[in-house]
Design brief:
Blueprint: H1 11-33, H2 39-87
């Protein structure tokens, strides 16, 4: 009775996203490593970069969880409505 939801992303899109993320993080890490400043400033930038990366993953997960939750609630509401409509007899007094 339950239908599986088809994936909206292809494996090529997933691979492109992973490669793009890896390249961006690598380039930024190299940029911070070779920045011509004092080591403590470089360390501050590195901590900022990694904090931003972890915060981005957390935000993406929260957004995905909220979307999945709303999809489940919508399916449950639709099932309840379908059941009510199936049980309703308009000719019953």
């Amino acid at each position: 009775m339950s239908k599986s939801v088809p994936s909206k992303t292809t494996s090529a899109y997933f691979a492109q996203s992973v490669i793009s993320f890896g390249l961006a993080l690598g380039a930024l890490t190299l940029g911070v490593a070779y920045l011509p400043v004092d080591p403590w400033i470089r360390s501050f930038f590195a901590v900022g970069v990694f904090y931003l990366v972890t915060a981005s993953f957390t935000l993406a997960k929260v957004i995905r969880d909220r979307q999945e939750e709303s999809a489940v609630v919508a399916r449950v509401d639709q099932a309840r409505l379908d059941r009510l409509l199936a049980e309703h007899d308009p000719y019953q007094s």
